[in-house]
Design brief:
The protein is built from 3 helices and no strands. By secondary structure, the chain is an all-alpha fold. It has one domain: Metal-sensitive repressor, helix protomer (Methane Monooxygenase Hydroxylase, Chain G, domain 1), CATH 1.20.58.
């Protein structure tokens, strides 16, 4: 079995890491809102915002990984097929 190089290039990794840290802060804020008995509408609004942010970060990661996997630097692996890329993206749906 051949393993693909799935390392995210540094600029994309940094951007994704920042996004995920922001989402982590959002989730901590939501937990605090729930513990303090905040209005349900506000909690749900924040949950929706965190979900949207996570979905965007996940898609960003798939695109970065797909780009990296589709064009291996050393040429030792064949690029991902369109079907493989679709399967990766579909796993987020």
């Amino acid at each position: 079995m051949t393993t693909r190089n799935s390392t995210i290039p540094l600029p994309e990794y940094d951007a994704m890491s920042k996004r995920l840290r922001r989402i982590e802060g959002q989730v901590r804020g939501i937990v605090k809102m729930i513990e303090e008995g905040s209005d349900c509408t506000e909690v749900i609004t924040q949950l929706a915002a965190a979900k949207k942010a996570f979905d965007a970060a996940a898609m960003f990661a798939v695109i970065a990984l797909a780009t990296q996997c589709a064009t291996p630097a050393d040429g030792s692996l064949s690029p991902l097929s369109v079907d493989e890329l679709r399967k990766l993206a579909k796993s987020l749906a």
